[in-house]
Write a structure and sequence with these properties.
By secondary structure, this protein is an alpha/beta fold. The chain is 46% helix and 14% strand. It contains six helices and five strands, in the order E-H-E-H-E-H-E-H-E-H-H. The relative contact order is 0.18.
Amino acid sequence: MNQGQLFIASDHGGYTLKKELIQFVKKELKLKINDLGPKKYDPNDDYPDFVIPLAKQVKKNNGRGVVICRNGVGVCMAVNKIKGIRCGIGYNLGAAKSMMKDDNTNVISLAADYLETNEAKAILKKWLETNYSNEERHNRRLAKIAKYEKK
């Protein structure tokens, strides 16, 4: 399993799934995970308040992150605004493996309204246990993105 600091954050829409995944990561995967909020359910919270700080911590610590909202899109868009973050939506096992192996994602986005808890656990596990391929073509593509981020 890929080591490094692991962070998790959500909004109210992903709050319940976030709590389930924290327990899964700690008890079943035996990994430490840092919960960046929300700490309590608030139906009026806004995901940028939690996932932008997560993205900054992932970048600062060369870690990995999990972000969750109802459809996975808003949190994905938000964290991808931070230079150096590569987030994809983990909508199934194949996507989870591919986004890590081919795209070296450092954040995965999950859709609480469209994934059963066991599906989300399996997707997260697959993403965490997959390593980047480091193939030349993937390195070339990621270098182009990094170059664009410097503009």
